[in-house]
Amino acid sequence: MWIDFWIKVIVSLLVLGGVLNLAGAQTWLERKQSALMQDRVGANRAYFTWRWLGPLNWVIRKLGSLGIINALADVLKMISKEDIIPARGDKFLHTLAPFLSVFFAIVAFAAIPLGPTLQLWGREIPLQVANINAGLLVVLALASIGIYGVILAGMVSGNNFSTIGGLRAASQMLAYEIALGVSLIGVVICYGTLDLNQIILKQGSHVAGGWIPLWGIITQPLAFIIFVTAALAETKRVPFDLPEGEPEIIGYFTEYSGMKFGAFFLTDFVEIVLVSALTAVLFFGGWQTPWLAADGFHFPWGAVVAVPHLAFVAVGLVSLTLKVSGFIWFFMLIRWTLPRFRYDQLMHLGWKVLFPLSLVNIAVTSVIIVLR
């Protein structure tokens, strides 16, 4: 019993560490990617030197020129900044709101399978914090609870503009969460389960003579487009950043500073990792690698290369990490390419385009499944 407990603790720490590192790395990656796309030098000025460090100063200066120390400077700035609560704000709820958002965004990762089941010392260790048979439903439910933190932040700040920002966020989340949830019904119909690990396993076959993996992107292309669009709106990033809109319109976290603002900042990045992980799991085979089965690679031309079990698990972990990293890069690319939608355009896209298309996807998928 205690061994099982500590195994779960280790897997939980692995998930938590991976998510926070990917979220933290985005503060650096986003600056460098935006600089590259805008043809300018990115973050490169934060560094320090101490006489007693000697030759290490050269390494620190080089890391600073790459912009890596800027992330550390951000954290130090947020920790040292004064936490101001408006006189008309509710102190308890003002403190609760940011941590409500970040907590549920992180907890949602409990149902995401990181890799195939690890067999070690006669034990089968699932690389998943909570093996839930309705994992997809749990992830969607937990992710949607986070919006209460956003609404709360706007409502308890004692600032009318923050309240309007919170209401904008609520209406946007409502419009896009429905389309997002309905788009995934097609996936559930197609694979016949809400268990995320089973959905990954059912994407393990190949078509076209064994050359193309039968991932969700092949069986549910329309659901993929709807899901990615709605999920991007869920992250409140450009072109769907109307709840925040830092430079032009006032967002829900205007009255936040220090680490409370940092918690909202972190939530955005954690949500991007969550959306990227869900996209990889539902539409790109999760931890599956093309032509790799538990006993080794089975190539379309008939060649077979045996792979040890530990290597099979390691490749699965790397495969999921690369897919998630790829989608994080893709979402950043969209952010620094597209302009922000007007509010009426945002509502039109959510209610009049994505939602009807998700219903059409359910109808088409149902007919195909019945006729198959």
Radius of gyration: 22 Å
Catalogue the unreliable spans: none
- Total count of helical runs of at least 4 residues: 13
Strand content: under 5%
Gross morphology is: globular
Order of strands, widest sheet = 5-6-7
The averaged pLDDT comes out at 87
**Tally of DSSP β-strands:** 7
N- to C-terminal separation?
A: 45 Å
Description:
The protein has helices at 2-37, 56-65, 68-80, 91-107, 135-145, 147-155, 160-191, 196-201, 216-219, 221-234, 258-283, 309-335, 343-371; strands at 118-120, 123-125, 206-207, 212-213, 292-293, 296-298, 304-306. The protein is mostly helical and 372 residues long. The strands form three sheets. It has a three-stranded antiparallel β-sheet, with no helix packed on it. The protein has a two-stranded antiparallel ribbon with strand order 1-2. The longest helix is centred in the first third of the chain and has 36 residues, at 2-37. The mean pLDDT is 87.
List keywords for this structure.
372 residues, mainly alpha, globular, 3-stranded antiparallel β-sheet, 7 strands, two-stranded antiparallel sheet, 13 helices
How are the SSEs ordered, and which strands pair?
Blueprint: H1 2-37, H2 56-65, H3 68-80, H4 91-107, E1 118-120, E2 123-125, H5 135-145, H6 147-155, H7 160-191, H8 196-201, E3 206-207, E4 212-213, H9 216-219, H10 221-234, H11 258-283, E5 292-293, E6 296-298, E7 304-306, H12 309-335, H13 343-371
Helix pairs in contact: 1-11, 1-12, 3-11, 4-5, 4-6, 4-11, 6-7, 7-10, 7-13, 10-11, 10-13, 11-12
